[in-house]
Amino acid sequence: MATFLYKLGRLAFRRRHFVALIWIALLALAGVGAASAPSAGSSSFSIPGTEAQKAFDLLDQRFPGGSADGGTARVVFEAPEGEKMTDAANKATVEKTVKELSDGSEVVSVADPFKAHAVSKDGTIAYASVRYEVPGMELKDASRDALEDAGQQARDAGLTVEIGGDALQTTPEAASSEIIGLAVAAVVLVITFGSLIAAGLPLLTALIGVGIGVSVITALANALDLGSTTSTLAMMIGLAVGIDYALFIVSRYRAELAEGRDREEAAGRATGTAGSAVVFAGLTVVIALVGLAVVNVPMLTKMGVAAAGTVVIAVLIALTMVPALLGYAGRKVKPAGAKGKRFGRGRKKAAEEGKPATAKPNMGTRWASFVVRRPVAVLLLGVLGLGAAALPATSLELGLPDDGSQPTSTTQRRAYDMLSEGFGPGFNGPLVVVVDAKASDAPKAAVTKVSDEIKDLKDVVTVTPATYNKSGDTATITVIPDSKPSSVSTEDLVHSIRAAGTGITADTDAKVLVTGTTAMNIDFSQKLNDALVPYLILVVGLAFLLLILVFRSILVPLKAALGFLLSVLAALGAVVAVFQWGWLADLFGVQETGPVMSMMPIFMVGVVFGLAMDYEVFLVTRMREAYVHGERPTQAVVTGFRHSARVVTAAAIIMIAVFSGFIGAGESMVKMIGFGLAIAVLFDAFVVRMAIVPAVLALLGKKAWWLPKWLDRVLPNVDVEGEALRKETEADKDGERELVRV
Fold it and tell me: Residue 169 and residue 413: Cα distance in Å, rounded?
C-alpha cells in the first residue's frame, strides 16, 4: 500500500498540470450536470415494515385521489379580547379567508371552521384545515405566498392569525454555519502551518471535493429521489474529512521536508505514509455511512451512500490533487518548524536545511511524556469523566420534533400553542385509525366496534365518526389524544389501540391499523431504536477487522472501538441533559425540552465513528511507525504525539467549529445535531484519543502490538507505516556507498 501510494504521490507531483486539469474538468462537468438537472423537492419518506406505513399504503389504495401524502396547513384564528369567533364580523372574515384559500391551484380542500365544528368550546379560537395535492416541501412559492397573504388579510381585519402544518416548511438554511466553520478552519490552519499557502491547500481541496460530490448529488437528485437533506449531510461530512485528509498529508509533507528530503520525494513519502492512513480512515467512514442501510429506511440509506461517495472523492483528491498542488506551491510551503515571513518573523531557517528549528519539546511531546509517566491516573480520570457525562443517557427518550419544538418566534409554534389552548394538547397530534373490513362479514358493525373500544381507552378525548371509502369496506377514524404528540402517554395510547385491534381482528376479521404523523414518528423512533445494536455490531465489527489489518494488533483496535463507544455515550448523555432535561438550555437557545430526536443516536454513531477513526488511525499509525522502526513502546507513544498531536488537535478544533455553527440554527433538529456532533468530537478527540489512548498504550507496552502468529501469516501486509519505503531507501543508500567504493 505505502509503496503504491508513494509512486502515486510522486507521479501526481510531477504531472501536476495533468492531475489538476482532470479534477477541474470533473468539477466543471459535475457543475454543468447540476445546473441542467431538474430541481428536486423533498424525497419520499417511507418506513417499510411498520404498521403506520402499511396503513398509509392502504389509504392510497382504498381512497384513490385522496392525496394522503399531500401538504397540510392549519390556519388558526383567535378573536379579539371580549369577542367570539361566531360574531358576525369575525365570521365573515374567516369565511372570506376560506374562500380565498380555496382558489389556490394546488389546494385540494379547505374546511370551513363553522361547518366542520372547528371552533373551541369558549368560542374564541377556530381553525381552517387546508389540504394540498403535493407534499409541503414541494409546494410552489405562489401557494405559500397565497397562504400567508390570506392570513395577513385576516390579521388586518382585527383577528390574531397563525399558520401551522407543513405547508410553510422549508429546507433549513445552513450557509452561514458553513461560512463560520470555514473561517475558523482557515484561522486554525494558518496557526498550525504558519503559512497562508499551506493553510489554503486543505481548504481548496476540500471545497473542490465537496463541489464535485454535492454537484453530482444535485444532478442525480430528481432521478434517484434524493432530498435536499442528502446534499446537506454530504456537504457537512465532505468538508470535515476533506480538510482532515489534506491536513494530514500536508503536515507529513512538511515533516519530510524538515528531514532534508527534496520536494518530490517528500510528496511521495507523505502520500505513501499519511496517505495510507487516509485510505483506511476513509474506509471506516464509508463503512459507517453505507452501514445505515441496515436500518431499512430508504431515505437514510440514500443519505448514507451519497455522503460515502463524497468521502471517496475526498480520499482520491487527498492522494492526487494535494501532491499536485504541493508541486505548484514549491518553496512557499515551508518545512515543519520553519515559518513564512509574515508569521515567523525572527525565526531561524535551520529547518529548511534539514536541521531541527528548536530543541524545545513541543506541546504534544510534553503532554505525552506526562501521560506515560502517570497512565493510571489519566486513564481513571478520563473514563470516570466520560462515564459521568454518559449517565443522563440512561434516561434517553426518543421522538421526532413537531411544531411544538419550534422557536416561539415562528408562526408554526404560535399556531401550535393556540390549538393546544383552544382544543387541548393532543389536538396537535391526531391519530388516524384505519379499519380494513374487506374480509369482514359486517364491515360497519366492525367499524362501530372499533370506535366503541377506542372511546373506552385511557387518554382519549375525542373519537370522530368514521369516514368510509366508496366501496364501504374501509374506514378511517380520527382519535384526539389527551396528551401532546411527543409525550409518553400518546405513545402508550397508540400501543393500546393496536392491542385492542388484535382482539377485534380475531372477533370480526377486520384489521385495525394506526397511522398519521404521530404514529409514523413513534414507529420511526422504534425502528431506529431496534436497528441501533445491529448497526453498532456491523460498523464497529467491520472497522475492528480493518484496524487489525492496519495496526496488526488485537488490543489496539479493541481499545479504539471501546473508546469510541465511551465518547458517543458521553455525547448522548450531554444531549439528554441539555435538550431533554433542560440543563443550560438558555445558553444553547433551547426553548422547548422534550424527547431526543430519534435519528440522533444512530446518526451520531455513523458520523462520529468515522471522524473518531480518522484521528485514531493518523495518531496511532505514527506510534506504530516509530515502534516498527525500533523505538520502545512508551517512546513510540511520545514520538507519535510529537509528530501528530498538533495536526489532530487542529483537525478536531476545525470540526468542533463547523458543527458548533449549527447550534445557532432556528430548527431544533439542526441545533441538536450540531451540538451532539460538536460535543462528541470534543470528547473523542481530546479525552479519548489524547488522554485515554496514550495511557492505555503506555500500560500495555509491547502487548499492545501483539498479534497471534497464525493471524499474522494470514493477514496481508498493507504496510501503512511505510516500512517498505524505509528499506528501499536504505538499499539505495547502500548501493550508492558501494558505487563510491568501487
Answer: 12
Dmax (CA) of the chain = 113
Distance from C-alpha of 249 to C-alpha of 272, rounded to nearest angstrom: 9
Q: What are phi and psi of 640, to 5 degrees?
A: -60, -40
Measured CA distances, 362 to 195, 369, 434 (Å):
19, 11, 68
Among all chains, which residue has been given the C-alpha cell 456537504?
235
Q: What are phi and psi of 435, to 5 degrees?
A: -110, 110
Range of 99-113, 165-179, 212-226 with top mean pLDDT:
99-113
Q: d(Cα 321, Cα 206) in Å, to the nearest integer?
A: 10
> Could you tell me the three cell numbers for 396?
434517553
Give the residue ranges of DSSP H helices in 588-722.
Answer: 600-628, 633-660, 668-682, 693-700, 709-714
Encoded amino acid at 411, one letter: T
pLDDT value for 348: 45
Kindly state the percentage of the chain with pLDDT values over 90: 20
174 band by pLDDT with thresholds 50, 70 and 90: very low
Which helix (H) or strand (E) segment holds residue 243: the answer is: helix 228-258
Distance CA 576, CA 479 (A): 30
Query: From the centroid of its chain, how far is CA 274?
Result: 26
In this structure, which amino acid lies at residue 737?
A: R
**What is the amino acid identity at position 107?**
V
The dihedrals phi and psi of 472, each to the nearest 5 degrees, come to: 75, 15
Long-range contacts of range 286-291, CB-CB < 8 Å, 24 or more positions apart?
286/311, 286/312, 286/610, 287/539, 287/542, 287/543, 287/546, 288/539, 288/543, 288/605, 288/606, 288/607, 288/609, 288/610, 289/237, 289/606, 289/610, 291/535, 291/538, 291/539, 291/542, 291/606
- The sign of the CA dihedral 343, 346, 350, 356 is negative
Give the model confidence (pLDDT) of 202-213 as tens digits.
888 888 998 998
Buried b (16+ CB within 10 A) or exposed e, 34-47: beebeebbbbebeb
What is d(CA 94, CA 130) in angstroms, rounded to the nearest whole number?
13
Crossing angle for the helix pair 175-193 and 633-660, to the nearest 10 degrees: 150
**Residue 426: exposure state from Cβ atoms within 10 A (0-12, 13-18, ≥19):** buried
- Report the mean per-residue pLDDT for the chain: 82
**Angle (deg, nearest 10), helices 668-682 and 555-575:** 140
The two beta strands, 467-468 and 596-597, are: unpaired
